[in-house]
Design a protein that fits this description.
The protein is an alpha+beta fold and 166 residues long. The chain is built from three helices and seven strands. The chain has helices at 39-46, 51-65, 139-165, and strands spanning 5-6, 25-33, 88-89, 92-97, 101-107, 111-121, 126-136. The protein has a seven-stranded antiparallel β-sheet, with helices on one face.
């Protein structure tokens, strides 16, 4: 059976940490699948979140709006065949990309984060990586991330499982 593996570091060939600076939180997961889909298509599959995640986002948005943090509606989702730098890739803004990786980011009052989807193509299979980096702007970023972190990990594993199903 194929599994989702948590890595201890950023994949060596990843461009996600370029010019990032201090990293306060990092996680990276990988899964091995058979696919010839483009990196853009893989990203779209990964970020098709389950309904229960959409409800969590609604609750999060309701709570953080009180504190003046950014909120996103599921109605604002942008799906495309190609995500150029500067465009929204499903939820987040693309800040860098190449043929094998798309790096997205968002900056808010409390923290700055990046997430990337990367593919390492082999002869018989592909390894898909999903990596997240976070830098806290203040103590409020750390406080915000305390309850978010366990949900983040559950959500990441859930969306990576979608790749195994496709």
């Amino acid at each position: 059976m194929q599994r989702i593996l948590k890595l201890n570091s950023i994949p060596e060939q990843s461009i996600i940490s370029k010019d990032f600076g201090r990293i306060d939180y990092c996680d990276s997961f990988k899964v091995t699948i058979r696919t010839d889909n483009s990196i853009d298509s893989i990203l779209t599959i990964i970020f098709r979140t389950p309904t229960w995640v959409d409800y969590l986002v609604l609750v999060r948005n309701f709570v953080v709006k009180i504190f003046g943090l950014k909120t996103e509606s599921n109605k604002n989702i942008k799906v495309a065949n190609y995500y150029p730098v500067g465009a929204k890739a499903v939820y987040f803004t693309v800040i860098d990309r190449n043929d094998n990786e798309i790096v997205m980011a968002e900056d808010d009052l409390h923290l700055y984060f990046r997430t990337s989807v990367m593919v390492d193509r082999k002869r018989t299979h592909s390894i898909i990586y999903l990596t997240t980096l976070v830098r806290f702007h203040s103590i409020w970023g750390r406080i915000y991330f305390l309850p978010v972190k366990p949900f983040h990990r559950i959500i990441i594993k859930s969306i990576m499982k979608q790749l195994l199903k496709n």
